[in-house]
Amino acid sequence: MKAKALVLIAILSLISINSSSATDCESACVDVYTQDGELIFEARKGSGPKASAQPKPTTKPTIKPKVVVKPKVVAKPKVVAKPKAAAPKKATVPKKSAPKPLTATSLSDRISKSLPTIGISYQPSFQPLINVPVYFWSDTPSTFRTKVDLIGEVIDVTMRPSFTWAFGDGTFINTTDAGGPFPNGKVTHAFSTPGTYPVVLITTWGGSFTHNGAVRAITGEVKKISALTITVVAANTRFVN
After folding, report:
1. Is domain 115-232 given the CATH code 1.10.3720.10 in the classification?
2. H/E element holding 21?
3. DSSP assignment, residue 183?
4. Concatenated DSSP letters for 5-18?
5. Which of 116, 121, 161, 159 minimizes the C-alpha distance to 138?
6. Can you say whether the dihedral through the CA atoms of 185, 189, 194, 198 is positive or negative?
7. Which of 172, 204, 218, 223 has the most CB atoms less than 10 A away?
8. Which portions of the chain are predicted below pLDDT 50?
9. How far, in Å, CA of 41 to CA of 28, rounded?
10. Where are the domains of the chain?
């Protein structure tokens, strides 16, 4: 009996949780996710009208025909023809127009926003030497914040970047630092062979959004790709006697 009671309590609690979440969603549903490299904001609130009571059908009144009393027979009466009973008239019932459908009270909206475009730089900017560290950096902000108002629902978004540098010689660096110029920059690389290398930076944005004091993770990530070419040269060598 105790086990049955525990199962019944669990089922009732699940039903109450589902019903409360459905009620919250009917009042205001908000979601933020990524699609095609952009942030997508969606909001919906309200619900459609409840089913109105159907009017009861009107029954037509039945009219009873009038009964004609036969006249009494007197001595040597004249033949009197029986009067014909009048046909009852049909009662006309006015037609009621069908009730107009109620319009739904739900509202919804959807917008998209782009994240910043990333530029990259390096130093020394002209023909760096082999085996000498080259400093790389991007102009990415450490935090991207935006606020959106959809159908009266305010959504705050906070996004932060992470970086993957590919230097074109098979070397990669994963970091959350945007780098910087000499002497404080933390993203450096020394090329061992002269040549021209394609340097690619992949910036990955992820974050969360806040609605009515509740914080939720944004579904998906946004990736931005920036690239440049760098030519690295060998130092001139002189032989002195």
Report:
1. no
2. helix 2-27
3. T
4. HHHHHHHHHHHHHH
5. 121
6. negative
7. 218
8. 5-24, 48-57, 101-105
9. 13
10. 115-232
